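Q: What structure does this chain adopt?
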Amino acid sequence: QVQLVESGGGLVQAGGSLRLSCAASGGTFSGYGMGWFRQAPGKEREFVALISRVGRITRYADSVRGRFTIDRDNDKNIVYLQMTSLKPEDTAVYYCAAETTVGRYNYWGQGTQVTVSS
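A:
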């Protein structure tokens, strides 16, 4: 059983930055990939970024590429999402998830709210 807890969300002006953290417990953190997803009001949840087990591979949604960076610290069991040049359309609840089965995110955090004001 994997537990995930996000933190770092908040209110920021457009053009600002935030760093989200996701602390994992249970399981072997370095044994699974991690992803960030987000869900805006009235919209479906969408993929934001992923990172492989030891961080060699990262992928980003087109909408955030070049502005967001995903990283992980396997010694601390934490995955980060550094967000820069934030836009109002980045406003959403951000979730981290653990890919404990290849291609499937089986465990999710409770989410952290990010609000970007114009």
